[in-house]
Amino acid sequence: MEIIKDCLEFLYFLSGPAIAVIAYLALSQIKVAKEQMEEQKRSLRVSSKRDALKLTSEQVTVYADKIIPLQSALKIKLKGEEINFLDKFEIEFEGDSIKVIPPKEDFDLQELIKAGSEFVSVANAMESFSTYFASGVADEKIAYLSLGSTFCDSMQMMAPILIPLSNDGRRFSATLRLYYIWGSRLEAETLEKQKRDIEKKLSSKKQTSVKVVGTNA
Q1: Are the beta carbons of 106 and 188 closer than 8 angstroms?
Q2: How many domains does the chain have?
Q3: Could you give the C-alpha distances from 145 to 5, 53, 142, in angstroms and in order?
């Protein structure tokens, strides 16, 4: 009986260090697993960013090679048919929406039927392009640097037609979403530049005054 008791006590004293070793090994494995997970996350982020940059580059090329020629064909058709009222609409970005202000003079939207085929081709191509950026799959900030101005110039003409067509929020939603993002940004940049120019002019103006005779004022 004493022998069993001694053995149990011996095992008890041994179990302390053993448990400590097991706990240490378990914590080490947890730390390793955590580091592996962090590394996988970093690799995934790098891979996602690389894929986004690749897709962005591809779509910028698509816009230059395919969409711009379609836009040019539409402009030529509109000019040939003497349809010029689209350029007279005004666009404003208010809150989370795009506001279209029609021209004061009369116009007939039915005239656009003459350029219907060209208009639809441009609208569909721009929607396909915009989907990648409006969804966040491609990097819109990078694409904006090279395409922001030309995209917004084209949308200035097309928005008065696309917005009524998209009153259900589904048709051409990606194009209008990207136009809102880029158009608002472009407008803010323009205003910021004007602000800097005004501040520069103000700082260069020397303010002078004439003292009233007999006073220190």
Answers
A1: no
A2: 1
A3: 81, 13, 6
Measure the CA–CA gap between 117 and 89, rounded to whole angstroms: 21
pLDDT digits (tens, 9 = 90+) for 154-212: 999 999 999 988 877 678 999 999 999 999 999 999 999 989 888 888 887 777 777 77
What pLDDT, in 10s, does the model give residues 91-144? 999 888 899 999 888 888 888 889 999 999 999 999 999 999 999 999 999 999
The model carries a pTM of: 0.73
- Structural domain that includes position 136: 50-201
Residue 19 lies in a domain: no
Using CB atoms within 10 Å of the CB of residue 115, give its burial: 0 to 12 exposed, 13 to 18 middle, 19+ buried.
Answer: buried
Q: Give the length of the chain.
A: 217
The end-to-end CA distance of the chain, in Å, is 112
